[in-house]
Specification:
The protein is an alpha+beta fold. The chain is built from 3 helices and 5 strands.
Length: 133
């Protein structure tokens, strides 16, 4: 398991549903933001990974559980860590928490390395070392 990356977010008015709660799709966006922060904390981005390692990393599966309502102006943090590596894929465990530690949502996201032909390829050793750091 790798060390976590944390990014802060705030619920904005245009992210709310008709009931005044954070729209469920926004959680997926916040998880994406958390994974990008994970890469940035390690000196990379989604555009630098293909340039440096010759692969794209793409989402192939995600699961999300909603645990608490998020309302306008709520400030939370998105925590992201990698919990498992396969030959071609790796799994992020992610959580969205209030400052007091209360869980708003949690989930897992499986990403796979895709080569220039569009098929899954083994994780390049340099990328794996970076992701494990």
């Amino acid at each position: 398991m790798t060390g976590p990356s944390v990014v802060e977010v705030e619920a904005r008015s245009y992210e709310l549903d008709p009931y005044g709660h954070l729209n469920n799709a926004v959680y997926v966006n916040w998880f994406e933001h958390g994974r990008l922060a994970y890469l940035r904390d390690r000196g990379e981005t989604y555009t630098s990974v293909p340039e440096r390692f010759g692969v794209h990393v793409v989402v192939v599966h995600q699961e999300l559980s909603y645990k608490a309502q998020v309302e306008l102006g709520d400030r939370l943090r998105v925590e992201s860590r990698i919990t498992r590596f396969g030959r071609t894929s790796f799994v992020f465990a992610q959580a969205i928490r209030y400052p007091d530690g209360r869980l708003a949502a949690e989930g897992t996201v499986t990403m796979v390395c895709v080569g220039p032909e569009g098929a899954a390829v083994p994780i390049p050793p340099g990328l794996r070392a970076l992701l494990e750091s």
